[in-house]
Specification:
Blueprint: H1 4-25, H2 31-53, H3 60-87, H4 96-107, H5 111-123, H6 125-148, H7 157-165, H8 168-182, H9 188-199, H10 201-214, H11 225-247, H12 253-264, H13 270-278, H14 282-310
């Protein structure tokens, strides 16, 4: 895959992000509207994308591949957790809250709102088919390991499990898998509705990201050295490590590239949500989210291009 194809897709997506940013600055969209759009994406559009990706005749080989991808994604999270501790040790980042923010930001990417739309644009339904495995593993880790990164979570264990299993994307994965294994094809009107909803995924996701970025001031984000170190680690070091690791695996090209896109995405918005909830430097978390997202316009296509050359 040449550099121009992913670069063009990323530029298009950032053009949509710019519209979201402009809409907020012009007061056409407020924080409450952004929250509503986020809920729409989470509860309707993203699940529709997932179910549509599974609407295909049963293929035992693809089922085996997605099973392997799921296991490899678990391994990828474990490696990322280890890297977070190596790259952000106590002696380098003395502030406990900032250290937790940096580690969380390195491990948990914007897989839902950025990686899946990009995988969809570059790889089609096959990209989404394999990307949902990463999303499932993401939800398992973020509601177990992730929440504890910001301090002790007193939420009962069963309630946390219920929250994880009740995530609409997890439900959609289960429904999609059942439809895939049984080769059940949804009737035309319902399938068409899923298609229209899926078509909204990329533009609405990017607009929401733009609105989110517009809520934070960008005047001071570029002078924070720790933010830049966190961005380099998240956007370049970790993806480059996985370019090499995935190179050695005999995986289907779409599966391998889909994994890489999810791993190479910028810092996820979950970081800001958790940092605000636990009072762990939300301003610092917002700066890291902003810079990582903006810089990914260059780093994402560069990583994908390099992987295309090597693989």
């Amino acid at each position: 895959m040449g550099f121009a194809i992913p670069a063009t897709q990323v530029v298009i997506m950032f053009g949509l992000i710019a519209f979201g940013w402009l809409a907020f600055r012009l007061r056409l969209v407020g924080a409450e509207a952004a929250k509503g759009m986020t809920n729409l994406l989470l509860y309707l559009i993203s699940p529709a994308v997932i179910i549509q990706a599974f609407q295909r005749p049963f293929d035992a080989e693809k089922l085996r591949t997605v099973g392997w991808v799921f296991l490899l994604d678990v391994g990828a999270f474990l490696i990322s957790i280890a890297l977070a501790h190596v790259l952000f040790p106590r002696r380098l980042v003395a502030d406990d809250s900032k250290r937790r923010v940096l580690r969380f930001g390195l491990i948990y990417t914007n897989a839902g709102f950025l990686a899946i739309p990009l995988a969809q644009a570059l790889l089609g339904d096959d990209g989404v088919f394999y990307a949902v495995a990463y999303l499932a593993v993401f939800n398992i880790f973020v509601w177990t390991h992730g929440v504890n990164q910001f301090g002790r979570d007193d939420t009962p264990w069963l309630r946390r499990v219920g929250t994880m299993l009740g995530n609409p994307n997890i439900i959609a994965i289960v429904v999609g898998l059942v439809l895939f294994v049984t080769s059940v094809r949804l009737p035309s009107p319902l399938f068409d509705v899923l298609g229209y909803l899926s078509g909204m995924n990329t533009p609405l996701s990017m607009i929401v990201i733009g609105v989110t970025l517009a809520e934070y001031s960008l005047r001071t984000v570029f002078t924070d050295g720790l933010v830049w170190w966190g961005t380099v680690a998240r956007n370049l070091l970790v993806p480059l490590i996985f370019v090499g690791l995935l190179w050695m695996l005999p995986l289907d090209h779409a599966a391998r590239m889909s994994m890489l896109i999810s791993i190479s995405a910028p810092v996820g918005a979950t970081l800001v949500i958790f940092s605000v909830k636990h009072g762990r430097h939300p301003e610092f978390a917002s700066r890291l989210l902003s810079v990582s997202t903006l810089v990914s316009v260059l780093t994402l296509p560069a990583v994908i291009y390099l992987a295309g050359l090597l693989w």
